[in-house]
Amino acid sequence: MTTPKPHHVVLGAGLMGRLLACALAEEGHRVSLYDAGSPDGNLSAARVAAAMLAPLAESAISELPIVKMGQYGLKRWPELLCRLPEPVFFQQEGTLIVWHRQDAFEAARFSRQMEASWKQVDGLAAAQTLSAAQIQQLEPALGLRFAQGLHLPGEGQLDNRALLNALLARLAVLKVAIHWNSPREPKDFLIAPQGDVLGLFDCRGLGARPQIPGLRGVRGEVIRVHAPEVELKRPVRLIHPRYPLYVAPMPDHVFVIGATEIESDDMSAASVRSTLELLSAAYSLHSGFAEARILEISSQCRPALPDNLPTVRQVAPGSWQINGLYRHGFLIAPALLDVVMQLVKSGASTLAGEFSLALGDRV
Which residues, 6+ apart, have CB-to-CB distance to 249 below 8 Å? Predict the structure, then answer.
């Protein structure tokens, strides 16, 4: 009877855990993946998301490292998707930003913040100012409802749930041992030379709070609707004094509507207030949402650190924490993946420096 070769262990089968387990297995490693939930990602923040890949749009409310990682991710996603055994909806038709006349002041502030970030990041496409006629040409369904807008060319989106399923299929092809409904902690494993684990990668999000001081949950609420009367080619963001609403089109006239961001780790159902605000704002964007059918109203908490930046931290030889992806998971996951893989291969990462990503003891 042969002894199994030493292996890598990944804790958490959300977006980051699935990507990392695939990458490690593709390099020829034996990989075991443990998750507290089920294969559909029911406990993962990645399941309740719009998966917009919008570094310039996010720059108005995010730090420059997020913008740089997002710009990298936009280029990297097509390469990652082509390896998957199932198709995943992905497009780069840009982001459209619009606002009602009474919110012009807030829109101007948003635009100034984006411009300041654009000047600091090489290669980032500039926002294009649009007239009402140009908005109508870009998105005919919106007509002349908005007097002004902005187009952020090259930004994109993907189907988050199709991606999670395709990654699961890829893990099966790669013969990764997956243990569902099996919560584990780093202390449950022994790293070589005492044990048979070569590398331990903790991607559990909020599940790692006992091990990561300051890690908190930021609640988000998302509504999925089926709206046959609405035609949108790209994600649309609606500037609002309290929240930047987004409407992201998915295949088959499914739309993801979201905006709420609450400093709370409450996992209960969405509130009536949030639901009314999201649906009312979507209706103000396009009246066709009045006849949409609500498929799902979901809430989930995103893991965030005090500075809202992610961390890749070595806590012991061979043991790493990857966490704090906050609301930027799909945007920055490819960058974090490649940083971790550089560390696995050589013990150092040039990409971490490019992204101003602190390694080591930062929490």
Answer: 232, 233, 234, 235, 255
Whether this model's pTM surpasses 0.85: yes
Lowest mean pLDDT among 23-27, 175-179, 272-276: 272-276
Of 47, 16, 20, nearest in space to 32 by CA: 20
Q: Residue 240 pLDDT > 90, yes or no? A: no
Predicted confidence (pLDDT) at residue 3 exceeds the cutoff of 60:
no
Distance CA 176, CA 169 (A): 10
Which three-class secondary structure state does DSSP give residue 14? coil
Both tokens of 86, joined, read: 């199932």
Q: Within 13 Å, how many C-alpha atoms sit on residue 147's CB side?
A: 6
Say if CB 359 and CB 320 are below 8 A apart. Answer: no
| Beta partners for residue 239, in sequence order | 99
Instruction: Identify the sign of the CA torsion 56, 136, 105, 51.
Output: negative
Q: Which has the closest alpha carbon to 242: 289, 276, 286, 217?
A: 276
- 34 pLDDT band, cuts 50/70/90, is very high
Alpha carbon of 37 to those of 44, 47, 183: distances in Å?
Answer: 8, 12, 8
Flag whether pLDDT at 64 surpasses 50.
yes
Q: At what angle do helices 329-346 and 64-81 cross, to 10 degrees?
A: 80
Closest CA relative to residue 168, chosen from 267, 47, 311: 47
Q: How confident is the model at residue 273 (pLDDT cuts 50, 70, 90)?
A: confident
